[in-house]
Amino acid sequence: MNNLKKSTQIILKELATRYPDSTEFRKNAIVEVGKEFGYTGKDWDPLMQKNNRVKIGTYDLAGLIEPLRETMVSNSVVKMPQSAAQMQSIVNEEKTFAKTDKSFVPWGAFSDIVKIVKSNMFYPTYISGLSGNGKTFMVEQACAKVGKEFIRVQINPETDEDDLLGGFRLIDGETVFSKGPVLKAMENGAILLLDEIDRATNKIMCLQGILEGKPVLVKKTGEIVEPAEGFNVIATANTKGKGSEDGRFTAASIIDDAFLERFTISVDQQFPSLNVEKKIVFKHMEKFNCMDIDFAEKLVLWADIIRKTFYDDGVDEVISTRRLCHIVQTFSIFQKRDKAIDLCISRFDSDTKEAFLDLYSKVDADEIVEETGDINAEETYEV
Q: Rounded mean pLDDT of the chain?
């Protein structure tokens, strides 16, 4: 027993408690207990050695479990809870609030998101749009404006129920259930942001009932968590949940229609207009103390031309608003326009990079000038 690592001992101890009259255990029972504690194969494999196997899929652990039971009766080891349902549940009580960012410029759906957050209603919202066009930043700043608690979860293909709802953890030698960000947001009445939700797999189907505003049963503890007033779910994605048709977002998955149907509204976030994007670039130049109005105007025009070409299938890459902000930050360090652009587009293939640099050189030389157009309605926001 003492030769086994702590995690294996905990699995064995739980088996002894759950099945007080048994010494033989099926493989699936051992694995199930291990997974409930958040363990992996390396933690339960020592219990399934060949010399313990009495038949296919069944292991005799009498030599390990009988001495353990005697020890548990004499209370000479730490007493474990009788079952997962009796374990203590804990949650990080610290509240998280987004800070107002002076470089933020309100535009697009920002006023709508503010109204949704202010309403305190449960109103699941799905926001899609190309990478780097301000979706996450917009939600964060809407919560900052309203003073609403904001909990962000970065979704990836490995995100599962344990990541979202919580799982078992060892804390000070005690096994406790640590509540995840979804349960914390529900109990606190916070805004839960599921960032890049289209990278998820079916492992997030545990959220379907939550997206209906219903209480959730935590299977591992038997606890029922009710959503507090003000709780809401906002999801961001690069696609509309149907996968990436052009292959641009290779990690984007096809989200189940029944899951998508639970979002009350969907918002398609586009890149800002020329005038709004100029304000954004100006704000970042102020932030990094490198104000250059001529450079800002030419950067925005350059990006706009590339986007129009991208939408016409003329190029495979696009310059996002976030990329423009990266260029500004780089310019503040090196104080050279061409170098800042070069460094910030180096991730593109050589042909694309060369074409983009050549285009900027023409914009910088005033060979291409901005066309005057009507002011977009989104430009009426105060900056």
A: 87
Higher pLDDT, 335 or 72: 335
CATH of the domain at 157: 3.40.50.300
- Report CA 246 to chain centroid distance, whole Å: 23
Q: Are 285 and 325 in contact (CB under 8 A)?
A: no
Assess contact for 97 and 141: CB atoms under 8 A: no
Which residue, chain included where needed, has tokens 């640099």?
Answer: 357
How is residue 38 written in tokens? 């958040």
Half-sphere exposure of 244 (CA within 13 A, CB side): 16
Asked whether residue 325 is assigned to any structural domain, the reply reads yes
The CA angle 376-379-383, to the nearest 5 degrees, is 175
Is 154 inside any structural domain? Answer: yes
Asked if the model's pLDDT at residue 380 lies above 50, the reply is no
Which of 27, 61, 80 terminates a domain? The answer is: 80
Q: Does residue 1 fall inside a structural domain?
A: no
The token duo for 312 is 């016409």
Q: Is the same domain home to 241 and 118?
A: yes
Of 338, 332, 342, which Cα lies nearest the Cα of 103? 332
The Cα–Cα gap between 87 and 72 comes to 17
**What is the rounded distance in angstroms from the CA atom of residue 33 to the CA atom of residue 35?**
6
| Structure confidence at residue 247 (pLDDT) | 65
Three-state secondary structure string covering 34-83 = HHHCCCCHHHHHHHHCHHHEEECCEEECHHHHHHHHHHHHCCCCCCCCCC
Distance CA 182, CA 165 (A): 6
Of the candidates 31, 60, 80, which is a domain's last residue? 80
Helices vs. strands in the chain: H and E counts, helices first: 14, 13
pLDDT tens readout for residues 74-124:
433 333 344 444 455 555 666 789 999 999 999 999 999 999 999 999 999
The length of the chain is 383
* Long-range contacts, stretch 38-44, CB < 8 angstroms, 24+ apart: 38/162, 38/167, 38/168, 38/169, 39/7, 39/10, 39/11, 43/5, 43/7, 43/8, 43/11, 44/8, 44/11
Place of tokens 């992996």: 40
Q: What is the pTM of this model?
A: 0.73
> By residue range, what is the domain housing residue 355?
274-380
Instruction: Determine the residue type at 27.
Output: K
